[in-house]
Amino acid sequence: MAEMRFSQSVSARLEGGVLVVAIDNPPVNALSAHVRSGLIAALDHAASAAEIIGLVISGAGRTFIGGADIREFGTPPVGPSLPDVIDRIEAFEKPVICAVTGAALGGGCEVALACHGRIAGETATFGLPEVKLGIVPGAGGTQRLPRLIGTIAAIDLIGTGRAAKADETVALGLADAVVADPLTAAVAAVRDNAGRPLRRTGGMNVPAADSAAIDMAATTIIAKSRGQSAPAEAVRLVRAAGSLGLEQCLAEERATFLRLRDSTEAAALRHVFFAERAAGKVETLADVAPRRIDTVGVVGTGLMGSGIAVSALTSGYRVIALEQTREAAASGHERIAGLLDKTVQSRRLTAEARDACLARLETTAEAKNLATADLVVEAVFDDLSVKTALFRTLDGIVAPDAILATNTSYLDPDRIAAATADPSRVVGLHFFSPANVMRLVEVVDCAKTAPDVLASALAFVNRLGKLAVVCGVTEGFIGNRIFSAYRREAEFMVEDGALPHQIDAALEAYGFPMGIFAVNDMAGLDIAWARRKRQAATRDPAERYVEIADRLCEAGRLGRKTGLGWYAYANGERTVDPAVTAVIDAARAKKDIVPRAFTAEEIMDRLLTAMVDEGKALLAEGIAARPGDIDLVMINGYGFPAHKGGPMFAAQ
Ligand code: T1G
After folding, report:
1. pLDDT, tens digit, for every residue of 577-613?
2. Is the N end or the C end of the chain the one with fewer CB atoms within 10 Å?
3. What is the 65 CA–ligand 1 centroid distance (Å)?
4. Per-residue model confidence as pLDDT tens digits over 234-267
5. How far does the centroid of ligand 1 lie from the alpha carbon of residue 463, in Å?
6. Is there a cis peptide before residue 80, judged by omega within 30 degrees of 0?
7. What is the pTM of this model?
8. Strand locations in 445-552 (E)
9. Could you count the other beta carbons within 10 Å of the beta carbon of residue 481?
């Protein structure tokens, strides 16, 4: 069967009168200009060839279509536009069926919606993730999806931007069938539909739905948007589909898409998208093969250790979890099993998969059982002498090529590595709590870490499905160093006149889920207090130091866990406590500080400046490789709103 080429990325072959079109635009078959023109050319050809009874649209490789080409955003538009292609497909006289293997996202899902039938392969996923890029679907998604699956389901899919797996899409009415061989099935579907009235999605009515239920779905989406504008806009457009004409709504959708595309919010989220793709990529490791890791040892099964164990288990690793005593090992097993149960309850894991995880878990008090581990991650108490003693022990147990990783947050991993005979096999893996939920892992490239050890650590974090950001050795790595810098600035402003709840309100209005003083209360004030006390002897007396937090801790106000911290927590409710204001007033009086007023804007400017200045220092010291890495750490580890792009981006 001769291949026909319609552009550099679109070709086709004829199969029994059916034109089977393949899009081949690596890496994800994005709808670049040459893909769009190739599709139009294929349709033109099919329209003019009487022997052709219809078309199948498919994607080469493991993706159907990853969406519009995001790299084209902000560049001069090149025709045909995606709506042109979509309208042409939907209006086509002959049946057009898509065979979906892998992801059909954004414009890729909109192409599928315009087809007269959708055949899904077992790996197929459908989604309109545009809100994650600060935009709305711009080629009919907000109008055609509700026609197929109803307003409520459409609000959920478009408002969250999540991708639905093949089975769910058939249940929703988005895909017609899930089959092992979608291409063959699609060709058959073209034959079945040839010469018959075609099902044009745009021509369908939006199924009626209970308005209260629609309101509920809309409220849920908007409540989670943390001030981002795209979700509310998407909900508005989907709701309009049920009440206004298609053409009018398509025009409004397009106008909204173009307006949002050029917004700062969308630019911020595009920055985050590409920063995530760049993160974890280390040029010097391009040709370095990671070591094989099948068995992971975890030392300590407390909050962090059990979370790390669960992440490794649910990613298919065998896990040996070590505790100091048999009793502790048994309760560690229980804690891990409990977390797995919770994951099953939240439908993120099947019961069978949980059982398989437990079958791959061993908890023990025998350190020698770690001899078969390819990688050991320690999550014991954050004390240097405890960690160095542990690494010395592990050094004598694990295989010479096994990797030792420390989960320390603040200690110097080089000093931990120096306790071993071979520091080149030591790396930092700084997880965030809860480790089975938080995406971010700071992968610390220590002074002597071997390239293939770093490559192995990155491969391990990728396999956990987490976001790896590489950083060098400094106290607090990227995240905690920046966190300390803006906490310091926040405390300066408190001493100068602002109140903790005012600063938190400014951060929450900016888009943080929680302000810095509330975060400190949640984490517990004693950890930072212990570190300040450790540093007191070496602190520069000329350096400004705010004592308020020390006074709170001395008064037993250690945060939520004691019911009192920067706030009071009667019945778990966060309330402003005049006793704290009194401590603050006393601290100001002691330094003869006359308090002054701060606007929310000034508060945010000062906090962002503190973050950015520390970020610039981290880049200058070579601790962070890219500004985007710093943004990802603050977004994924410290609640910085993604739609602001992170501190380095926001500062631009
Ligand atoms: N455009 C351009 N480049 C893209 C791209 C896209 N849509 N998607 C991915 N890439 C690049 C990415 O930067 C990386 O490049 C490489 O492909 C592999 O990506 C009108 C306007 C499809 C699930 O939001 O979710 O359609 O780093 O590492 O893990 O309504 O990519 O190698 O140089 O992520 O296999 C909507 C975005 C667009 C989906 C594959 N679509 N992509 O995951 O690979 S807006 C999306 C993804 C839209 C219309 C609107 C994932 C993937 P590099 P990767 P992966």
Report:
1. 999 999 999 999 999 999 999 999 999 999 999 999 9
2. N
3. 9
4. 999 999 998 889 999 999 999 999 999 999 999 9
5. 19
6. yes
7. 0.94
8. 467-471
9. 22
